[in-house]
C-alpha cells in the first residue's frame, strides 16, 4: 500500500476536530465537495471506514479513533517543518497574516499598515479580523495582537502598550437621555454590549458602575456592529480612546472619570521571529503601539 497523501490526512484531521465536513472545509479554505473527496480518498487508500454519520454530525469509527493520534503526530511534524521553513525565509516579500480584533483591524491597524506598505511594497498583508484567539501554533496567523498574554512556551509575547479607554455615547443619545456626571448616574442609562453581556457586567460592577442585565437591551458579538449601534444612539459603552477619536459623532461620558486601562500584547512564534519579513512587521507594530 502506498503512503497516504498528506492532503487527505489533513482533511481527516480537520473533519475529526470540527465534527462536520462544512466546518472542516471552512477551516482549510476548501469547498465541501473537495474536502469530502479527500476524506473518501483516504478511506480508500487505507481500506477503512473512518467516519459514520450520527444525525447531522460525523463521528469517528473505532478505526478512525485509532488513527487519530498517529495523524496528529504527522500534523504536528508538518506544522514544525512549515514553521522552520518560514523562519529561515529572509526576503521581505510573501504573505504575513496579522490577527487582531475587528475593532483594532478597522480603526487602529490601517495607519501602521500604510507604513508597512511603504517600507515593504512587495509584502502581502492578510488581516485576520477576529475576536477569538487565533492559534499561532497552527499557523492561523503569524502575528497576533491581543489584550491577553498567551501562555504557550513556544510563543514570544511583548507588552507594547497600556492603552486607555473611557465611556462613550453618541451626541444624539446624550441630548435625548442626558449627560451623566457620576458613575451612579449610569444606572438610568442604556448600554450596548460587545459579545458576552455577563462578562461586561462582571467587569463594570467592581468599578462601582451599577449596571444590570436589563440595561443591555441590544448588542452584538461583532465589535464593529456594536460600535455602530453606539454611534447611532442606542446607548453607552466603554471604548478605546484611539477608536473614539476617529468618530466625531460620539462624545466621552463622565468627563472627570479616570481612564480604563488595558494591555496590548504582540505575539509571534519563536521560530517565526527569525524570519526577516516577520521580524520587520513585528518590530514596526511594536514601535507603532509604543509611540501611541
UniProtKB/TrEMBL annotation:
The keyword DNA-binding applies. GO terms for biological process: DNA-templated transcription. Residues 4-61 form the HTH lysR-type domain. InterPro entries: LysR-type_TF_proteobact-type, LysR_HTH_N, LysR_subst-bd, WH-like_DNA-bd_sf, WH_DNA-bd_sf. PROSITE patterns: HTH_LYSR. Keywords: DNA-binding, Transcription, Transcription regulation. GO terms for molecular function: DNA-binding transcription factor activity; sequence-specific DNA binding. Belongs to the LysR transcriptional regulatory family. PANTHER family: HTH-TYPE TRANSCRIPTIONAL REGULATOR, TRANSCRIPTIONAL REGULATORY PROTEIN. This is Cat operon transcriptional regulator. It comes from Phaeobacter italicus. The lineage of its organism: Bacteria, Pseudomonadati, Pseudomonadota, Alphaproteobacteria, Rhodobacterales. The gene is catM.
